[in-house]
Amino acid sequence: MKTLPVEKNLRILVVDDNRAIHQDFRKILIGEDLTGEVATMEAALFGEAMDTRQTVRFELDSAYQGKEAVELTQRALAEGRPYAMAFMDVRMPPGWDGIETTSRIWEIDPEMQVVICTAYSDYSWDQMSGRLGHPDRLVILKKPFDNVEALQMATALTEKWHLARQARAQMANLEELVEVRTRELRTAKEVAEVASKAKSEFLANMSHEIRTPMNGVIGMTGLLLDTELDPLQREYAETIRTSAETLLTVINDVLDFSKIEAGKLTFEMLDFDLVDTVESTVDMLAERAQAKGLELVAKFAPNLPRMVRGDPGRLRQILTNLLGNAVKFTERGEIVVSAALENETTTHVTMRFDVRDTGVGIPAAVQPHLFQAFSQADSSTTRKYGGTGLGLAISRRLVEMMQGRIGVSSEPGSGSDFWFCARFEKTDLADVAFAPEPDGWSNLRVLVVDDNATSRQILRHQIFAWKLQKGSAASGHEALKALREAAAEGRPYTVALLDSQMPEMDGLTLAHAIKDDPAIAATHLIVLTPRGHVPQPEALAAAKIAAALPKPVKQSRLLDCLVTLIGKSIAPVLAPKASAARPLSPALQARLRDVRLLIAEDNVVNQKVALGQLKRLGCAAEAVGNGLEVIEALLRYPYPVVFMDVQMPEMDGYESTRAIRQRERDASCPWERPVHIIALTANAMQGDREKCLAIGMNDYISKPVRGEEMQEALERWIDPSRASPA
C-alpha cells in the first residue's frame, strides 16, 4: 500500500536550550526565508525542479529543557499525533541533558526516532551507546552540521518512522486476519469433532442394536442344528445361519471402514507363523470353494521366512477379502494363494501375496475403481453376486497401513490375480523347523496323484523341499502305471497321495486297485478329500488307506502324517471333521461339574442362547435381567463366573462391575473374591474391550457369541496364561 506524502507524519520535536537553534531548524525544515546558502545547497542536491517542499512542510515543535520535551511527547501521544522524530541537543543546563531526556522519552514513546546533536565534548560514542544501547531509532549528528545534513535526516527518518508504522499496521491486520481464520478453523474443527463423535456414537449404537438380535439368530440357529432335524429342516436352518453370517460380514465391513476413516483402527505387533496364518485363512474358505467344485490351494516360495512380527489378524482379513471375492466370482477351475519374499533389509521383510483365480475376469476400464469404497465391477441393482463394495477398499487401506501396495491383473474370461505387498518386522524367534529327518528319509519316494495340475505341482515342490524323491500322475490309470514301473525297476514308491475326487477312477477305487496288485500293495496310501467329506473309517479300512487329510493340505499336517507313516506305523490317521467341537480341558470339565455360572442379559432370546450354549458345554447356569439382579444373585449363591451384558436397564454392566469390585474391597464381602466377570456385549467398536477391562472386567466377548468363544473364555478363566482375545 502506497501512502501519499500529505498523509505522512512530519511532526518533529526540536529540543535545545538555545533559541537561535530552533530558528535555524525552522528555516531549514519549514522553509521560512529560504534564501541564500540554503537555497543554493538544496538546488545542488535536488535540482532546480525540486519544489515539493513548498507544499509539504515539516511540523516543528520546540522544547528548551528535557522535562518540557517529555511533556510535549506525552501530550502528542494523548492527542494521537505523536512525533516522528526529535533533534536532541546533548548539553542543556540546568536539568536533564539530552541523553537522559532521550531515555525518558523512549519510556513513553519507544517508536520515536532521535538524532543526538553533539560535538562529542560531553559524551563519547561508547558512553552514549552504553546508556542508550544501539537501537535503530538512534542517529548521532556531529556538530557543527550543515543544513543539508539536517534536511536529509529529517526527510529520511520521518519516512522511516512512517514505513515502520505502516508495516506494523499491516502486521496487525495480518495477525487479526490469522486470528479470525484460526477462530474459524477452531470452530470448524469443533464442528467436525462433534460430527465425528456423533458418527461414532451412531455406529456404536447401530452395532449394538444389530448385533443383539443377530446374536439371537445365530445362537438359536446353532442350537437348532445340534438337535435331530430331518434333511429339509436342516437345509432351512443352514440357510438361516448362512444368511446371518453374511449379514454379520456386511456389518463388520461397515464398522471396519468407519474405524479406518475415523483413524481409530489399530494394529497389533505379534510374532506369528506366516505359513500357518495363510493356511488357516485358506481353511476358512475351503468348504465354500469345494461346494462350487473349485480347487483351492496354497503355494509358498522355498525362501519364505515363516516367523515374522506384525498383525496376523489384519493379514488374515485382507486374504479373506481377496479369497472371498475369488470364490464368489469363480464358477469353475481353481484358486491359488501364493506367498513369496519380495525384498528384505536387516530389520524388515516385504512379502508378496497373490490370489489368482480362473473366474469371470474384470474389464480394464473398471480395474482402477475397484479399490474405492462402495465400488464394484457390476454396480447395477440386479448384479448377480451382491456385496457392499467395501472389502477391497478396506483391504487397500489395511495394506497401506502395513506400508505396502495392492493391485490387480485381470482380463475378462481369463480370471484375475489380486496381489498385495506387506511389510513385517523380522523376529528374534527362529523359523519354525520341520520334524527331524528320519533315517533313510531321502531315499523314500512319494507319488502325487491328482487331476489338477496346480495341486500336483505344489505338492511335488513341497515334497522335494523335504528332501523326498517325488513323482506325479494326473489320473488313476497313470498312477498305476507309474507305481508298477517303479516297482519293476526296484525303486518302488513308499507313499502315494491320492486325490479322492478324480474322473474315471476316484481315489478309493484307485486305492483298491493298488492294494489288489501284490507288486505295489506295500505302498502306503494317503487320501486327500474335500473338507467335511472324509470317508467313513470302514471305507478307509476296506481300501487299506492309512490316512485321510482334508484339502487344501496344510504343510505341517502332511509332514506329520508322512513321518508317522514312514517312521512308525500305518495305523489310520483321520483328520477331525471341520465341524467337530474342541473338547474341554480336563481342568475345566472338573471345575464346571461343581459350580453354576451366571448370565446377566436383559434380552430374553439372548438369555436362552447363552444358557443353551453353556448347557452344551456341560455347565449349569442361571440368567438375570440387569446389574441389580446380578448383585442380588451373588448374595444368594457364590457364582464364580458372570457373563455380563453391558447395556441393561436400571443398572448396566459397567455400574454393576464397579459395584461388585467395590464390595469385594470390603472384608465382609459375602462371596468368594474376586468374581470372574466376562463382558458379553454387542459393543464392538474400537476401545470397547479396553473400556470393559479398565473398569474391572476380566475378559471380553463381542456379540454375536459362538459357543467356541464361550468355551475359550472359560478356558482362560481356568488358565490365565492363555492369550487374551484380540
Task: State the helix count.
Answer: 21
Summarize the amount of helix as a percent range.
Answer: 40-55%
What's the mean pLDDT score?
81
| Terminal-residue CA separation | 64 Å
Biggest sheet record: 7 strands, mixed
Structural class by helix and strand composition: alpha/beta
Low-confidence stretches: 1-6, 49-55, 379-384, 432-436, 568-580
Radius of gyration: 45 Å
Shape category: elongated
The number of strands is: 23
Strand portion, in percent?
15-25%
Written description of the protein model:
The chain has 726 residues and is an alpha/beta fold. Helices cover 45% and strands 18% of the residues. It is built from 21 helices and 23 strands. Strands 6, 7, 8, 9, 10, 11 and 12 form a seven-stranded mixed beta sheet that branches. Strands 14-13-15-16-17-18 form a six-stranded parallel beta sheet, with helices on both faces. Strands 2-1-3-4-5 form a five-stranded parallel beta sheet, sandwiched between helices. Helix 3 packs parallel to helix 4, helix 8 runs parallel beside helix 9 and helix 12 runs parallel beside helix 13. The protein is elongated, with a radius of gyration of 45 Å. It starts with 10 loop residues before the first strand and ends in an 8-residue tail after the last helix. The N terminus is likely disordered.
